[in-house]
Structure formats: structure tokens, C-alpha cells
Design goal:
It is an enzyme of class 2 (transferase). This protein is of the alpha+beta class. It contains 10 helices and 6 strands. Among the domains are: about 80 residues, no CATH class; about 80 residues; about 50 residues, no CATH class. Strand 5 and strand 6 form a beta hairpin.
């Protein structure tokens, strides 16, 4: 609706209508096929020749819809826009329910019927907002979406939290084994205790927690992002023991093997720098650099 010269490409995924979740109405089709038909119908109502294609991507939902050419001339743009407004108005839950009760649902619900209805019904003020406000209360999202997955937090802040949580887990082991030196081997590598996210949060200061609360997932997301150091399973935090990690599969695709090799030794090993026992792996086996001289 933004302009007559507009073209579009859409890759339908989640099943949503204009006013909420899309409700199925055709049991003979799969939910995905029915939804694709609905999105295609929207393109037809908007006056496009809708083309369908299948992308070569690793996804079960890879059918895309493309609108490159219009079905009407530029002079009809205002008329078509009123028809689009009527179509959106008719797809409101209350409008669909009342229509279903009166006449029964029309499975085709094609653009031709919508166009005919547009001439006889008017949704009030909505029809007068062509080219300006398309729907009362509609608020488009900002052009730039704020990233809130802990990825943009300052590096110093993240490093401090990681070090604090790691020390907390390591100290918990020392407290548990205090006084029982027989149970600790001089050759053992201290993996620390596992604590729940709640227990970890209780040991962090209020300012840190307040800052993490503004991120999606908060503390849990930050710890999961720190994959090298932590493992978060069933709401509990563990220090990762790289000796237990499964080696890369020999039958791994060449592209993945090459990428893995390119990333080898490109970052410093956190355990080599901060763990009291050093890294659990020898230098030649660790994917991270044991010192700056190993960095690639």
C-alpha cells in the first residue's frame, strides 16, 4: 500500500493474521499450505500478480511469495486501496464471527468477493485514511530494532560477571571439600559445583542484576553466550569440562570442518588465564590459545 511502484518478497513462517493468530478453516489442507494460500490471497487483494517459489535453504518453511507486477493501472490505486481497507476490516475476529454465523464460512474467500463487498460496505473512518493512517492504533516497529540478547553489553561488564560466577562455582567446591583433603586428588581438575540460576543471582550485586534484567533472558542468556566457560542445563549452571566434549565428527561436511579449523586458536583460553588449575586440555588439543604466542 506504500506506493504503486512497490514490489514485495515474503517468506511466510509464523501463522498470523492482521489482528492476531491465524485461525484454520480448511481441514483438507495442511496448516502451512492453508496459510500460504492466505498470504497469496492478500497479495491478490492488493492487486499483485503473485508468484510462488521454493528457496534452497535448510528449513521446512521455505516457500516464498513474490509480487512484482500489478493487476491494475495507476489511476485505480485509490479504489484498490479502499478495497484493501475493507478486506482488513472484514478480517477482524468480530467481523469473521458474525459473517460465519449469518452465511457460513466461504472457504474460497477470494479477492473478487472482497472487491464486490467493498462497493457496498464501508468501515467508516478507515476508508478515508488512504495513504496516511492505514488502521487506527497501528504502530509500525522502529527501523532499527534494539539488540537485547546480551551481545551488545560492554566486554568488561561481561568479563566481570563471568569471572564472578566462575569463582562462585569454584569456591563452592572448596567449601564443600574443606577439611576432607583425602577426597581431593592432587591431579584432579576442579570443575566446581553446579548452582541454580537463582542461587547464582543471589550472589550478584543489585546493579549487575538490574542491568541484566533489561536484556532478554538476563543472566541465563549471558551465561549461555559464554559457551567456552559455562554449561547451563535444566536451570543449573556448570563450569564446562572440555575433556567431556565430543570430538568433531569425521564425517562432518567439508565446509563445517574448514570453518572449525579456521576458528582454531583465534581466541585466548579462559581457563588458561583464570582457572586455578589451568585448562583441562593440553595445549595441542584445546581449540583456544594457551598464551598470546599461540594466537592465529
Amino acid at each position: 500500500r506504500s506506493s504503486y511502484s512497490c514490489c514485495y518478497f515474503v517468506l511466510p513462517c509464523c501463522f498470523f493474521d492482521f489482528h492476531g493468530k491465524y485461525s484454520r478453516r480448511q481441514s483438507k489442507k495442511t496448516q502451512y499450505r492453508e496459510y500460504l494460500d492466505f498470504v497469496s490471497q492478500v497479495g491478490l487483494v492488493c492487486g499483485f500478480h503473485v508468484e510462488e517459489d521454493c528457496l534452497r535453504i535448510p528449513s521446512t518453511k521455505r516457500v516464498c511469495l513474490i509480487g512484482k507486477n500489478r493487476t491494475y493501472s495507476p489511476v485505480q490505486h485509490a479504489v484498490i486501496d479502499r478495497q484493501i481497507t475493507q478486506y482488513i476490516h472484514n478480517r477482524q475476529p468480530c467481523a469473521l464471527d458474525s459473517r460465519d454465523r449469518k452465511t457460513g464460512f466461504n472457504h474460497n474467500d477470494g479477492s473478487d468477493n472482497v472487491c464486490k463487498e467493498a462497493d457496498t460496505e464501508s468501515p467508516g473512518d478507515e476508508a478515508e485514511t488512504t495513504g496516511r493512517v492505514w488502521m487506527p492504533g497501528f504502530q509500525p516497529r522502529e527501523k532499527e530494532e534494539q539488540v537485547r540478547n546480551c551481545a551488545t553489553l560492554p566486554r568488561d561488564f561481561v568479563d566481570d560477571v563471568v569471572l564472578s560466577v566462575a569463582n562462585l562455582l569454584l569456591n563452592a567446591t572448596q567449601e564443600k571439600s574443606c577439611g576432607s583433603t583425602d577426597s581431593v586428588s592432587t591431579n584432579s581438575w576442579n570443575q566446581g559445583e553446579s548452582l541454580s540460576l537463582k542461587e547464582v543471582a543471589e550472589h550478584l550485586n543489585k546493579e549487575t542484576l538490574k542491568r541484566l534484567k533489561s536484556e532478554y533472558g538476563g543472566l541465563q542468556t549471558l551465561l549461555k553466550n559464554s559457551h567456552q566457560v559455562f554449561e547451563v542445563l535444566n536451570g543449573r549452571v556448570h563450569i564446562r569440562d572440555w575433556r567431556k566434549e565430543k570430538p568433531a565428527r569425521k564425517n562432518m561436511p567439508e565446509v563445517k570442518r574448514r570453518r572449525s579449523a579456521e576458528a582454531f586458536k583465534t581466541r585466548l583460553c579462559w581457563f588458561f588465564l583464570h582457572h586455578p588449575d589451568g585448562c583441562s586440555l593440553p595445549s595441542e588439543s584445546c581449540p583456544y590459545a594457551h598464551g598470546t604466542d599461540e594466537l592465529r
